[in-house]
Structure formats: structure tokens, C-alpha cells
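Batch job 17 of 40 flagged for manual review because the log was empty.
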Amino acid sequence: MKNINLKTIIKAKILLVILFSFQILVCTGQVKDKKVNTQTIISNQNTTFPQIHTNLNGMVREFVRTMHQDKKGNYWFGTNGDGIIRYNGKILEKITIANISPHFRVLEIIEDNVGNLWFGTSEGLIKYDGKEFKTFTRNEGLQDEEIWGLAIDRNGLIWVGSVDGVSHFDGEKFMPFSLPDSMVENPKPMLSRKLVFKIIEDKNGTMWFATDGNGIFKYKNGKFAHLTNKNGLTDNNTADILEDRLGNIWIGTFYGGVSKFDGQSYYNFTKDGIIEGDESYNFYEDSRGNVWFTAEGYGVYRYNGKKFDQFTTEDGLTSNVVQSIFEDNKGQVWFGSWQGISIYDGQTIMNAKDKEPWTN
């Protein structure tokens, strides 16, 4: 399979989705609470790429962008253009939400302390309380419906990163949160000047905002710090960020590969030739403390604290272009790629439906 530059594809998709979202809002007006319907099987749905491994019984035309397992054990799959899919351990269900196109994208899934699920989508912020889905859009105060970054801080405040900036939500209302209006010099092409791809809160209560083209902002107690290529960041087009259990900050970028920041110094593993691939993201720390991430066109890397292991199509991956990584409560690591979903059981990588036989 020819390697595909994700950033180029996303640019085109964002324009289409924004236009489509605008049409939906014009037609429907005020957004109301949306209730859920489900359907179990979609048959004979064409896929964009050949499906070597499962496409969730034909429900996924492109790929699974994000995955989550909730406190009850249900699996949730956020797709690139086919909405939300749920697996309860026995059957797959395609979730449809009234007044929302079935072809929306899901970019982030998080769960709060009481078990509510929050989905960052191309149609706004969606909340699921176990019974009903409720959608929040600009009408409720969001900066923009195209949501990429989601985080819940230690106080229960929800942080939302969209194409048009950051908001925080206390459960009742959204409040805009303005990052400093300072841009790096000579920025590379970006999707949006205000786009925040990823938001995390570290162990010290500092909020981190990974932006596309403007480096990283840190925020605590009303004060900001700006990390750019002038003070150690390898690339200002940051794609993902993760704090591991040791307090190291892992940074994935579009043009500068992967770095680890220990609070004092940056170690760029791509620049040093330890790993390959300038475009890296999808960081995930598993229950054993391994840090996983993808490198566009080079498969998946795992870091065990001492060395990196690389997994590619030669090891069983469906494609070296992987879009999501996730560990379930069985210790299985899932990979969503352009050509289906695989599972790594600690020994081998195989078709996900061979480990989770939802077709039975």
C-alpha cells in the first residue's frame, strides 16, 4: 500500500465536514437532546481501502480513529466518517443519533468519574449518560463544532480543543479559554491557526495544549509558558502529547518525529536515528508502563523504558499507517489502521475478530 500523508487528507476532510456541519445547522436550527438508536449489521458497505482485518462487520468504510473501553466493559469505536460503534462483548451496534448525519467523525473519547462518556466529533461535543445522547454545539457556547482535543482535569472541568480554539465546560455552560495571541515565526502549513490537537493535565496540575503550528502552551495558576523550536521543541506542528507514569512528557509532531521531555531536556529519538518517521502521534501508555505510538508509514513503536520495538506489516499489522492504539481490560492492545483492526495479545498480532468473535 502506498503511504498516505494523513495531514493532507485531513485538510480536505475538514473543509467538507465544516461545510456539511453548517448545512445541518441551517436546516435543523436549535439542537435538542438526541436519543440513541442502534443497528447491529450493515452489509455490503464499500470500503475506501482493502480490508485485510475486520472493519467491524462492514460498519467502517475508512478507519477507526479512536477507541475506548468504559467502566462497564463496553468497547466504543470512534470512526472516520461512520460515527460511533459500540461492542458490549457479544454484539456490535452502530449508534445513530437523531438530527445528526450518520457520517460524522469521532476524534476523541473520554470518560468522567461518574461514568459519563464524552465524544469529541465533527458535529460537536456529545455526552452519553448511559441512557441518552446529548449534543452540544455553538448554540450552547462551543467555539466550534469540529473538536479534536478533550480532557477532564482533577476538578472535573472539561477542556475542549476545537478548530477555533479552546473552551472549558463545567457541566452547565461553556467558557472560552484564550491561549496567548503569539505565533511562531515562519510557521509551516497548518489546518487552523487556533486548532488544539491534544489537551492533558500533568501530575502537577499543569495543563498542556498541543497546537498545530504554534508549538505547545503550558498553563497553571493564570500563567502561560510557550514551548517552540526556539526553546527546545523539535517541531512547532505538534500532533499529540502524553505524560507517562514517570512524569516524562512525550511529544509527537508532524515534521519532527518523537521527543521525550523530562522537565529539563528534550530527547528527540527521530533526529538521533533511533526511530523512523517524521509524523508521529497516537501515544498510549499500557498497564505495564510501555509507551506505544505510531509513525506514519513505519508502523507502531513500543518503548519499555530501555529500548524501542517496532511492529510493521511483517509482524502482522494490516498496514504501516496506523491511526489508533488502545489497551482493553484483558491486556490486549488494539490497532486501528487504514485496512482494518488488529489485536496484539503479547505474542502475535492478529485479526481483531479472531480474538473477539462478534460475528458468532
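Reviewer: the log was empty due to a logging misconfiguration, but the result itself is present. Confidence is low (pLDDT under 50) at residues 1-6, 11-41. Unflagging and moving on to job 18.
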